[in-house]
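call fold(seq) -> tokens
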Amino acid sequence: MLSSRTIENKDRNKYHEATKHSAISVQIDPNYVDATTQPAAFKRYPKFFRRFPLELNNPLHRFLSLTSAITFQKQYRDGIHSLRVQPSAGALYPTEIYVQIRGINGMLDGIYHLEPDSRSIALIYELIDDGLEGYFSDDRPIKGCIFLVSCVYFRSSWKYKNRSLRYCFLDSGHHLGAIEAAACVSSYPYQLLFDFDRLALNDDLGFENKEFVAAVAIAGKAKDNKSVRKLRSPLPFVAATDYFEPNLFIEEGCKQTWVKNPEKQPIQVPKFPFESKRMLQAIQRRRSARKFHPSSIGLDDFLTVCNAMQQPISSENAAAFEIYAAVQRVTGMQSGIYQIGGGGNYCLKQGDFHDRAGYLCINQAIARDSAVVFFVVSDCRNYQVALQQAGLVGQRIYLAATYLNFGCSGIGAFFDDETQAFLETDLNVLYAIAIGNLFDRDRIN
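ret:
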């Protein structure tokens, strides 16, 4: 007889099964879209909401800006695309950031929406004795900042349809990684929170079913033993895109793929092997590589990336996952499949698999020509959290690669079952991340 937990896991994993790619599925549905129909990439509250510009000479303002900043703009035939500190599948950026500020001199206690296109924050709710803490198990008031990451799923489903359920969670993990990096270079203590009353919070923030709260990052400390109540009144609905097409599969998935986790672990602080000033430059220079020069990276650089991505996640609610690496071009390492972690990197099978890696990643040259392709796998007991933390690991790999002056590209599209068989694992494959050398003309200085 199946246990209730096994049935629940299977029910949540149906979303993974339903969004798998195969060699046949990508031919049946090649995913062509009309670029002129892309929904708006920035959410804007009405003009009557008070706005405050983010002044980069103010340490708090600089920290807030770093969590979502636009770092580069590219001109395409259909218009200008703004690239940001965090990567996103197809550069569609389905995530938004809200920040609650409490007890900080010079700032009104309230909930703000971060607007990277205008480098400002819009005050959308003033606090009295209420706040976001009311939705957490520890409802004491936090002096400092509470960041909310939300997913505006239509920005992604417009192109990727049902598969965008995965991309929204991965992208929210990227955004958590951007908050983590901003906190580290700004010397702000922080922790990530995945276990809270997200459905009630979603309703009270006025998101309806068009935007979903995904995760929380806290940069502050509980200041007393008082309790904070939930928001005293709900916020009005404000559309995050200029038009909207519902996807009931994704809406159901956003609600059903998260499970409350009664098991909590002690929070561990990551210790990244990076110098703060160079890390800040890496945050500002990070891009997704489009091609790699098929040459080797150094063993020390590979080990530095492995060190960064294996640092503990600063949360009581960590998901269980494993990392494999298809090592293709690393000086001093035998090519093959490795399992990363556990105090070392263990070779599971030797061989030259670069053509196979390219094929598995939907015949992408970026995987074939890379130095290493990392694969994040999980049993998906908490599918939503596992994908978010896989995205966080991906963001760490991006920043480590940029810090070391080579390239990185997250790969969310791969042949699921064939990749799982290639890795010889029973766990679900959540994410692939390739690193490698850039061509000189592609380097960002």
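The two ends are 60 Å apart (CA to CA).
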